[in-house]
Design goal:
about 270 residues; alpha/beta; TIM Barrel; eight-stranded parallel beta sheet; two-stranded antiparallel ribbon; 9 helices; about 15% strand; globular
Length: about 270
């Protein structure tokens, strides 16, 4: 059992069922274009996710897909602040998916509850910004750049380095993300399948674990299907990861995942 972490009113880890982190994507450059929500519609989309069963909303303004076009800091900040202004009072804790200190610092004028850092605190300025915020953080396996580990051994080494950096900056409430996905050109699908098969070994960190596999390319490679046809494959992988101890599920399809988790928890004897 992992340590429990509080994200405002939501408890993640410990004896709690898997929680749902709904992706609120305001980046038109995303690999899954169907998930894009214009900033003018974020409150409506957040309300839809709340009703569908999301526990937390993860707001992201910059695509980190391998071939996504670059986005300047000022552009990312403008998107984030526009969305946060409209998300005020949405009724769910908000996570911010960014690894830029300028964006995080500006966003802290709003009610942010969680930081989602795909860089694993590799940037000192960002690590200091996270520490100064006092917020819990999702830390993804990273050495020099997000997702650069190429196998399970490199992933565990990177996660340990993440935790060393967190300790250095006094960041204690941490959720670990092993970084499934094709983050670099060198990474192959086999690495993602290995991570999923060995996911339970990551419970040795005694911290909540994030499963972020929704519609990703390794599923598409297996099924030979584009991103908009990967829902069932994503749910199949999520079932395995929940069995292996996943505590937080980052997903595009909140309603389908909420139904899936409800049935899963009932079958495991939980109300």
């Amino acid at each position: 059992m992992s340590r429990e972490i509080r994200i405002q009113s939501v408890s993640v880890g410990g004896n709690n069922p898997p929680r749902i982190l709904g992706v609120l994507n305001i980046s038109p450059e995303s690999f899954f274009s169907d998930s894009f929500t214009p900033c003018s519609q974020v409150f409506r989309r957040a309300e839809e996710m709340r009703r569908a069963g999301a526990d937390i909303i993860d707001l992201g303004a910059r695509s980190t897909a391998l071939h996504a076009p670059p986005l300047s800091v000022s552009e990312e900040k403008e998107r984030v602040l526009s969305a946060l202004k409209d998300l005020d009072g949405c009724g769910l804790p908000l996570s911010l998916d960014t690894c830029r200190p300028e964006v995080l610092t500006a966003a802290l004028h709003y009610d942010i509850a969680l930081v989602n850092d795909i860089s694993g605190l590799a940037d000192d300025a960002y690590a200091k910004a996270v520490a100064d915020s006092g917020l819990p953080a999702i830390l993804m396996a990273a050495n020099r750049i997000p997702g650069d580990p190429l196998n399970f051994a490199e992933t565990t080494s990177a996660l340990s380095a993440d935790l060393s950096r967190a300790e250095q900056y006094g960041i204690t409430d941490v959720i670990l993300d092993p970084g499934v996905g094709k983050w670099t050109a060198e990474r192959e699908s086999a690495a993602d399948w290995e991570l999923c098969r060995r996911f339970s070994e990551l419970k040795s960190y005694d911290l909540p674990l994030l499963a972020a596999v929704s519609r990703k390319s390794f599923i598409g490679d297996c099924l030979n299907k584009p991103s908009h046809e990967r829902l069932f494959g994503s749910l199949a992988v999520l079932y395995h990861l929940m069995e292996a101890g996943a505590d937080l599920l980052r997903v595009h399809d909140v309603g389908a995942t909420a139904d899936f988790v409800k049935i899963y928890t009932r079958l495991n004897g939980e109300d």
